[in-house]
Amino acid sequence: MLNRQTIENPVEVEGIALHSGGRVRLRLVPAGPGTGVVFVRTDRGDAEIPAKLEFQAPSFYSTVLRNGEESVGTVEHLMAAVSALLVDDLRIELDGPEVPILDGSARPFVELIRSAGFREHAATRDYLTLTRPIVLHEEEKRIAAYPGREFRVTYAIDFDHPLLGHQELSVSLWDTHAFAEKLAPARTFTFERDVEALRGRGLALGGSLDNAIVLGEDGILNEQELRYPDEFVRHKILDLTGDLSLVGRAVRAHVVAYRAGHDLHLRLARAILQARDSWYLAPWSEEAPRRGATAQA
What we know:
The protein is α+β, with helices and mostly antiparallel strands. It is built from 6 helices and 19 strands. The chain has 2 domains: 122 residues, lpxc deacetylase, domain 1 (Ribosomal Protein S5, domain 2); 157 residues, 2-Layer Sandwich (lpxc deacetylase, domain 1).
């Protein structure tokens, strides 16, 4: 049975915000049991924005949280690392409107959290265990969650592009090294044809080849090679992990997605919380997630 945990020491990092283009200083601070994960806008009078689904605000290109007049954007990569490393209670202080994009993946956040160390609380962690399937679809896009003893994701993408095409991956994220080794290094990606349109809407102002994979008509524009042959679908699973973390509990389910994105990820999270007869909360009563086991996909 695992207890809730936080980090041992404060740690910080500074970087560029993907959409606003400004520099942002981010600091992770230990928090007491039951606090949950809370963003704190130090540039806005220490306004607090809980990392919960009820505070999710409409957005297409990233995941945004809003509490009253204050918001924080592009939270998905950091939240994926926080949830995958089983950090239940955490204050995330930042002096700007977005989490810095860093290299476009979750790897820098994994390294930052690990450098802080972990502190276990006396309170036990409750897991949300799914007991009935929940299925959503939107035209050809689909996402579903099925009962399972662990957190597993099967994801497929299908793009009309010679480098992407159809990619599919099924991975168990039930030990913390699986995320760090198999998903965290996967970078966000976009198409060259979309960049100018995004910037015309005031988005991607901080985007560059240092923090995103950019695809031209025939291949990638980055000098650096792909970190995995299927880096694109791995990043989609990374995004899904961060979006589902807004449920506010560690989830035991098998999530299956086809051509989904932030909108469907968040709709699934909301559907899970609303289907109160389809899950239960309880401490771990079988084999606990492993911190040091070899990752299995």
